[in-house]
Amino acid sequence: MSNYEHRKSTVTLKIKRVDGTPLKNAEVVVRQTKHKFLFGCAEFSVVPFANDELQGKEKEKFETVFEKFLELFNFATLPFYWARFEPVKGKPDTIRLKKTAEWLLSKGCTVKGHPLCWHTLTAPWLLEMDNQQILFAQLERIRREVSEFAGLIDMWDVINEVVIMPIFNKYDNGITRICKELGRIRLVKEVFSAAIEANPDGIFLINDFNTSVAYEILIEGLLEAGVRIDAIGIQSHMHQGYWGVEKTQEILERFSRFNIPIHFTETTIISGNLMPPEIEDLNDYKVDEWPSTPEGEERQAMEAVMHYKTLFAHPMVKAITWWNFLDGGWLNAPAGFITKDGRVKPVYYELYKLIKGEWWIDKLTLVTDENGTANFSGYMGDYEISCQDRKTTFKLENKKEFIEITF
Amino acid sequence: MSNYEHRKSTVTLKIKRVDGTPLKNAEVVVRQTKHKFLFGCAEFSVVPFANDELQGKEKEKFETVFEKFLELFNFATLPFYWARFEPVKGKPDTIRLKKTAEWLLSKGCTVKGHPLCWHTLTAPWLLEMDNQQILFAQLERIRREVSEFAGLIDMWDVINEVVIMPIFNKYDNGITRICKELGRIRLVKEVFSAAIEANPDGIFLINDFNTSVAYEILIEGLLEAGVRIDAIGIQSHMHQGYWGVEKTQEILERFSRFNIPIHFTETTIISGNLMPPEIEDLNDYKVDEWPSTPEGEERQAMEAVMHYKTLFAHPMVKAITWWNFLDGGWLNAPAGFITKDGRVKPVYYELYKLIKGEWWIDKLTLVTDENGTANFSGYMGDYEISCQDRKTTFKLENKKEFIEITF
């Protein structure tokens, strides 16, 4: 038995003809078309790309990039940083983001918005308001985005980095001000209420880079205060080195006790020199060049495989998002699957071997018995079944599935 | 204006004769007899001493020790470590502890019990129980001690070191087991409810050595969950070096936002070599000899003065307890005011200069006016006023006081 049995369904297919008689002793072919597990990535250049703002060579380059992206991933994070989404109050970037979400959706991707409330990159114009007005603007903003995007984006990082939020002291900002006044728990309660009110069926996350006992206690406090948290977001930006299996499992153990799905929302393993350990805020590390190296790429691939295996093996983990698809994004880091000159790195192929290989039913030929029945076991997700030139689809969502197919 | 104005009362004394006429132009002498602020110390040898278990030279030594103790302190912490208080189930050490509390009370000390629930030094016989039985025994124990000692001890460290409690992994123990199952907030809720039920007017503390954001968030979660916390206990065992004013103030700022009294429950500054910084759990540091040195004693005195001044200057701090009175107690550290050979260290005299000097009205001669009125300003606490051979007492508890005295 593998470590991944909880990711699989044991399926009984009962296949009939249109007239209701069983399709006996027939060959059918089953193919997986999508994972139930969310394998995701954040690549914000998808916004200009999907809005057809690129031209010539640039456009061609990104066509290849997103072809690769969609071959591997079924989940994408889109940027809703308030400072960029609505730099001028009342002029949100809704149309471009909608077009991007629609495009991703049409390609089979689930889309998540990130983040609705955060002290970093929050709207600078909040600074002119008093705290009551800031809170009002923040909640209005949440209601607006969550309701306007409902149907396209039904999953949101509602609030980001609450552990540090009220004590964040690098610069004054509206969100730290209100978090200081309300306290963490009341602010989280307010922003979650606004989001849930705007889309009761949405999936709403809290997200943090702090994986210490402080975040754990915060979640416990929120749950005791009656906040509905649909998933716990854990960042894992490992610019200073891979955590290793043991630390990852220790974190999983601590956060899984809440019995709430865990999303690894921001996973980074770089393919260049590691950031020095003495850097406390990753944003403080500024380099002109941060090259991807051959040894780095080998290490990155190996560590990413270990990390994905560790997470996929844990039943509470429902999503992993890589940060980002291309090198040279945040911190100019060699964090991507593709180098600046467009070369696909080993990490891509190694994860592909898992996600679309070991953990995937590429093509399975089954033969039905006298009753038109065939059994198999496969990773949960969407499937296509064909018999000669006829085709239909089904979903595997539970440990055991009984599925009737009519050809 | 000093940093300590919030510790003082501005008093108008209105002094009359028994016949109701004002005592005009008369000399009265005011003396402080006790601080409102709790200046405390933990010295557990008080238990055998107060129970008259010592003999000969030992007894004489401790007579001097506790004379010194009572000259400086108005507050004492007594040990209720479950493993020692009730090593055999059903045979608690109640009588000895009661006698100790009575003795301290008779000497003018407020007494606090420490701790009612803690994973360290908890009853070993809990290990034979299931979690429901452990919780039941824990709550029963709390109800028993808090109600049996009511009137003698009305202040308790109800629960100790909750931040680490469910992840404490040095050895199996009953309290970690139930904290893991219930979660921190629910366990704290239960133990506080039991304590409050047993003595509704008691003062109940949570106490921790963890001063990080994790403890802060825990308190926020507890308050949101409706737990009545009467004071926040902060340990400050500085065996690895004095925190300094800045760190102390940063902690005070973070924990004072709850608007709940803060007690510095366990303050240690040693007068010997510092414990190496790499030691994480202070209990891991074992030495045969840990001498008090002349330079160490000078440093200890200076740092203690800074620490007490910083804490006394902060309006939310209501108590400071030193840990312990004599060298060679916990960890065999030179942490006390008195060396192993009975010499009183500079730290004692320096704190005496503050507590019974700078912050104390030793003797104030006032002259009443035509209306029998006299004004003065003094540190809050208990006072004695005398006029010739007559004497009475009053208390200063508020910023402004108007007190009528009849001689």
Could you give me the name of the CATH homologous superfamily of the largest domain in chain A? Glycosidases
How far apart lie the N and C ends of chain A?
A: 34 Å
Q: Oligomerization state of this entry? A: homodimer
- What is the CATH architecture descriptor of the largest domain in chain A? Alpha-Beta Barrel
What is the helix/strand order of chain A? Answer: EEEHHEHHEHEHHEHEHEHEHEEEEE
Strand % of chain A is 15-25%
Side-by-side strand order of the widest sheet of chain A: 3-4-5-6-7-8-9-10
How confident is the prediction overall: mean pLDDT of chain A?
Answer: 96
Task: Tell me the structural class of chain A.
Answer: alpha/beta
> Largest interface, and how many residues on either side?
A-B, 19 and 20 residues
Using the alpha-carbon principal axes, give the shape of chain A.
globular
**Radius of gyration of chain A, taken over Cα atoms and rounded to an integer in Å:** 23 Å
Total of DSSP H or I helical runs spanning 4+ residues of chain A? 11
List the uncertain runs of chain A: none
